Every structure is written in structure tokens, then in C-alpha cells.
């Protein structure tokens, strides 16, 4: 487990992690902490390099923090070689709606879009990332972070955004 974040008494306010299989530990080429919300590692698997970025986006209604987060993330993305396979995963605290963007967002989102979701849509379109879970049907219970009082609540957890130099992998 590669982790960046805050002390235990501040958990849930920020922090990101990347889990790597024990038998892949030797495949890690490097890892670095970009911030308390962004961590990056590079591994070589099947003779291909993958940069994996783990994130935890600020909660909704913290627009200024979210904009700063995406500036920082973009700065990090700009440093990744263009031919690199990129996996961006984490809690994006966003609802992207169900308006598809070709090669970026599929038709299986939800009805609602929030500020964080709009920021995620823009970021993915700009960086040619694919929000993979929006391309497949899911039961509502699998689309949302939590369920309370017979209502699905708040945010969708997007777990995999990809840009692959070899598109045959996904």
C-alpha cells in the first residue's frame, strides 16, 4: 500500500492510496506524493509502463479547493510522457450526469451533474481520459457511494479513468 495524506486524527479530510499486489512490488519503478490528495506511482507490467495516479477530490461545495486540486493534478499529468498508459483512480466526489462525450464518457451515468462532476468531465475530455464505469450499465446501488433513509446519496465514486497508449487493453 502506498499512501499519502494526513494524520489519523484527520482521516476523511484528505488522503490517497494505491494498492499494489505483493508479487508486483518489484515492478514499481517509482512513487511520489504530489500532495495530500494526489499520489503517483509507475509500474512496468507486460513490458508496458503504467503511471497510476490515486486521488481524493475535495467534497462538493468546496469549489475553490476543487479548482486548486485540478490545477495541481493537471500539472502532474503534464509531466507524464504522452505515450504512457495512465490509470487515474480514486474518489472524485462528483456526479457526471448521463450526457455522453465520445471516447470519454458513456451513456450510463445518472441524471444529476454537480460542480465536481462538471470539473471531472472537463478534465477527462481535455486529457483524453475515459471514465470506464460510465460505459456499462450498473444497478443504482453500485453507482453511489452510500445509501441512507431509502435514498441513494451524494456522490458517485469513479474508480477508473484510463488513457492507454495501446488501446487494445480496454
Q: What do you see in this structure?
A:
- The chain is of the alpha+beta class and 170 residues long.
- The chain has one domain (2-169).
- Helix content is 17%, strand content 28%.
- It is built from 2 helices and 10 strands.
- A 6-stranded mixed β-sheet has the order 3-4-5-6-10-7, covered by helices on one side.
- Strand 8 and strand 9 (151-153) form a beta hairpin.
- Helix 1 runs parallel beside helix 2.
- The chain starts with a strand and ends in a 7-residue tail after the last strand.
Q: How many strand elements? A: 10
Structural class: alpha+beta
**Main beta-sheet annotation:** 6 strands, mixed
Specify the number of helices: 2
Give unreliable regions as ranges. 151-155
Mind telling me the C-alpha Rg? 16 Å
**Shape, please?**
globular
Which strand order does the major sheet show? 3-4-5-6-10-7
List the helices and strands and how they pair.
Layout: E1 2-4, E2 16-18, E3 28-33, E4 38-45, E5 48-56, H1 63-78, E6 85-91, H2 115-127, E7 130-131, E8 146-148, E9 151-153, E10 161-163
Helix pairs in contact: 1-2
